[in-house]
Amino acid sequence: MDGYEATNSVSGTVYGNVVQAHTFVQAPAPPAGVPRQIRPSSGAFVNRGVELAALTAALERAEPLRPSVVALTGLGGVGKTEVVARWAEEHARRFPGGQLYADLTTVRHQGGVDLGEVLGGFLRALGVHRDFVPERLPERAALFRTVTSAGGLLVFLDNVEHASEVRTLLPTAGLVVVTGRARLPGLAMVGATLLDVEPLRPEAGSELVRSWLGPGRGTDDQLHDLVRLCGGLPLALQAVGSELITRSGLPVERVVTELADEAGRLAAIEHREGSVIEPFEAVYAHFPAHTRRLYHLLGLHPGWHLTPELAEAAGVERAGEALGELVRAHLLRPVVDETADPAERYRTHDLVRLHARRHARADPGREELLRRIVAHYRGRAAAADRALGDRMRLQEPPEPSVPGFADPVGAMAWLQVERADLLAVLTAAAEQGWHGEVWRLCESLWPLYHGRKHYGDWIASHLLGVEAAQWDNRPDAGIRMRNQLARAHYELGRYPAAAEQLAAAAELLPLVDDPRLAGVLVETEALLCLADGRPERAVELFTRAREANAGDPHGVVVQSYQLGRALVAAGRAEAALAVLAEATDLAERTRDRSMLVKLPLVQGRAHRALGQPAEAVRLVTSAADRAAARDELVKEAEARELLAELAEELGDRALAAGARARLRELRGRAGVLGGREA
Fold first, then answer.
1. What is the b/e burial string over 474-490, where b = at least 16 CB atoms within 10 angstroms of the residue's CB?
2. Are residues 558 and 599 in contact, defined by beta-carbon separation less than 8 angstroms?
3. Hey, CA dihedral for 267, 273, 274, 278, is it positive or negative?
4. pLDDT at residue 675, as a whole number
5. Which residues pair with 158 in a beta bridge?
6. What one-character-per-residue DSSP string does 583-645 give?
7. Which of 86-90, 134-138, 220-224, 378-382 has the lowest mean pLDDT?
8. Nearest-CA neighbor of 27 among 100, 125, 97, 93?
9. What is the reported pLDDT for 183?
10. Helix (H) or strand (E) segment spanning residue 420
11. Residue 487 pLDDT class (50, 70, 90 cuts)
């Protein structure tokens, strides 16, 4: 078997006499709250004893405070992901800490990978409250090492291109499995086992196909030829095997002849793996028109996931039937994602996408189809944005035909699960020069980026949004895009970059009439002044921002809160208390509960600055209790920490100890304690 162990393993429905080397063990359900992100195996499996043994050996030699790493590399479609999925199922009980998965393709922009986004997803999956996920990459990496110190964790990094992408994502303990197409010799520096996954030899591949077809269909020579024409890739064999199973009267010899002819016709494909996509041509040739249309949609889609909703919005007739046919042909796979909403989502292999893209390019209606894809995502994002609350918007409401969202939770869930596809669609729209679609989609993504802190996506999308607004001759949109981009830089502590965006936005103000646009710039500039030690300038600007929000009670309360913070920082605590008292009265009258949590914290700091710790304790205790009632962990933790400091200043050891104990409890609930520390 060309270097493989002499024994094979086969699973799935098997006909005839097959010797199995591995018994399939159904993985147990993970405990509640434990992530299980690696997809289930697909069924058929053969001749991967060396790879399975290497994974097991790496697990056995794992040390308590050092991760063990295995890198499997080989051609696309050779079955690397299937090997890991099968092995993870068989060893699920060995990973009480859970199984994490990241496909780096979905976070790779212009050749670079947003490692901070990957770490943020891992931390949230491991139970870290999203508000406790740090904003910057180094802090996220440090927290990830903390929460993975107990071990018992499997991390699967798929589609890795460079060893440097892995090093930042290593846990403190556990097993890390890496897959990619090119060898990753740099991982030897972290003690990784490097293993090439080769295509199936004709004998092993024939055994696999025979397990699907049963005895009596095709000679050994014909099956060997079939395997060779499929490049020995399980993915291609699955597609052709599905066609043979569906059409039980189709002779294997005829499929072999068709593939051989197609291989000659398509020999000039400009792709290093293009020679292995010919098997999909034989399957495509038998699709009805509606399935071909959906296949073209798959090839044109800039993102990675397909949904029935998208297929219908794109005008695919009999979309449900077409989806079912692609799934049966193994050209689509249902996505199993415990973090996603329950909607149906499908994904395909990039070799299938390559083949679909070739046919889509020949579709005379390809531009209209792409426009419908972009319009679907833009419309749904706008609907999600509006479901998440009232705020200033420049774009018109979505069309009545666009499905809405029942509640903010569902809207945010959709934005989160479609995040990678939204950025890919936005990028494609920019490449097409559809400038209005670009800045509108950008505007709608504000609650996702601001709420979930996807900084890489935030910055990449808004750089495109700034350019799109300029080309669309929309200075108002240009101001909005630059301000939102400035807020990303501000939150990352990149104050000069934020100031640069604000200055460019201010140059556009003479071209617009809406005073609210000047107000948003003033607020962001004030935040920058407060952050870099210019509180008096911040006081001036927040005062202007509060005046600009006249008539909007929530806006007035928010800007008063910010003004109070600036006044305290400027040493003007008495003035701060006057502003905050008015704001508190307005918040109580308008039942602005979120601000009624924040306001007492600033009031407490003001009383502390005035040498009135007892009054500060009363206000901060109120803030902590209100935050606890609303389950706002971050605000409660902030209040308890301040309360402990105040208690120590008063010499109240019991109060300080109680606050510290509650703080530890909150951090435990938020998931920011490591296994050993907890």
1. bbbbbbbbbbbbbbbbb
2. no
3. positive
4. 53
5. 103
6. HHHHHHHTT-HHHHHHHHHHHHHHHHHTT-HHHHHHHHHHHHHHHHHTT-HHHHHHHHHHHHH
7. 220-224
8. 93
9. 85
10. helix 419-432
11. very high
Q: Which helix (H) or strand (E) holds 270?
A: none
Angstrom distance (rounded) from CA 413 to CA 341:
6
Q: Reading across the β-sheet that carries 68-73, which strands appear in turn? A: 98-103, 153-158, 175-180, 68-73, 193-196
CB 644 within 8 A of CB 656: yes
For tokens 């892995």, what's the residue? 166
Q: Looking up tokens 């159904």, which residue turns up?
A: 26
Type of residue found at 372? R
200 alpha-carbon distance from chain centroid: 33
Two tokens, residue 484: 């939102």
Q: Checking phi first, is residue 328 left (phi over 0); if not, alpha (psi -120 to 50) or beta? A: alpha
- The tokens for 275 are 């020679």
Distance in angstroms (rounded) separating the CA atoms of residues 280 and 596: 61
Max mean pLDDT range (143-152, 349-358, 479-488): 479-488
**CA distance linking residue 385 with residue 426, whole number of Å:** 16
Is residue 157 classed as helix, strand or coil in its secondary structure? strand
Query: What per-residue confidence (pLDDT) applies to 337?
Result: 59
* Two structure tokens written together for 543: 């005062």
As a whole number of Å, the CA-based R_g of the chain is 29
- Cα–Cα separations (whole angstroms), residue 2 to 48, 79, 426: 12, 17, 46
- Amino acid identity of residue 85, one-letter, is A
- What is the percentage of the chain residues whose pLDDT exceeds 90? 51
Burial zone of 321 (CB within 10 Å; 0-12 exposed, 13-18 middle, 19+ buried): middle
Please tell me the least confidently modeled range out of 305-314, 386-395, 646-655.
Answer: 386-395
The region of weakest confidence among 296-305, 534-543, 545-554 is: 545-554
Q: Which residues pair with 115 in a beta bridge?
A: none
Ordered alpha helix ranges (H), 347-393: 350-361, 366-387
> In terms of pTM, does the model score above 0.70?
yes
Q: What is the mean pLDDT of residues 392-412?
A: 91
- Residue in the block written with tokens 């599905």: 242
For the chain, first and last CA: distance in Å? 49
| Residue/partner pairs of 321-324 with CB below 8 Å, 24 or more apart | 321/290, 321/291, 322/290, 322/291, 322/293, 322/294, 322/295, 323/294
Report the SS3 class of residue 102: strand
Q: Say how far apart CA 132 and CA 135 lie, in whole Å.
A: 9
Residue 616 confidence (pLDDT): 95
* Alpha carbon of residue 620 to chain centroid: 36
Q: How many other C-beta atoms are found inside a 10 Å radius of the C-beta of residue 109?
A: 17
Asked whether the predicted pLDDT for residue 588 surpasses 60, the reply is yes
Residues 586 and 430: their CA atoms lie apart, in Å, by: 44
Looking at residue 321, what is its pLDDT?
93
Burial class (CB in 10 A: 0-12, 13-18, 19+), 389: exposed
Give residues with Cβ within 8 angstroms of 615, minimum separation 6. Answer: 604, 607
For residue 215, CA distances in Å to 7, 255, 470 come to 21, 17, 66
CB-CB neighbours of 29 under 10 Å = 9
CA dist 198 to 47, 165, 204, 225, Å? 10, 24, 12, 18
Are the beta carbons of 99 and 35 closer than 8 angstroms? yes
Q: What whole-number distance in Å separates Cα of residue 160 and Cα of residue 102?
A: 10
- pLDDT-derived band at 470 (thresholds 50, 70, 90) equals very high
112-113 and 98-103 beta bridge pairing = unpaired
Q: Contact 326/344 with Cβ under 8 angstroms?
A: no
